[in-house]
Amino acid sequence: MVVKKETSALKYTSSLGRRKTAIAQVRLMQGSGILTLNNKVLALDPRLAEPLEMVGVSDKYDISVIVRGGGKEGQIIAIRHGIARALVKINEDFKTTLKKAGFITRDSREKERKKFGLKSARRAPQFSKR
Length: 130
Known about the structure:
With about 130 residues, this protein is α+β, with helices and mostly antiparallel strands. The protein has helices at about 45-55, 70-90, 95-100; strands spanning about 10-20, 20-30, 35, 40, 60-70.
């Protein structure tokens, strides 16, 4: 017996956004501007809506996000990055506007690892002459 998986009638565009250790899986669907974050419906944060407002489609898409890792700020920037990348997949004309605002470029700066013999990544113990 073969079990068929029900496919959702909603078509969506998916993309991945990253910042530091935060990874956001973003899905954009035709809708009215509802944000679902880790299966919880939330109000759309102004920082997350920036890419949508910049291209003038803030109330045309519902956003579904699964985000893991990182802190709050890293997660917000990862979600914003994912939304911008999904918008570019939907319409290639949005790319120049979003690129100028810096939403397409992934911020690749990550925390440098601590080295042995040092107090942090680069901070050495205080030198004592005697």
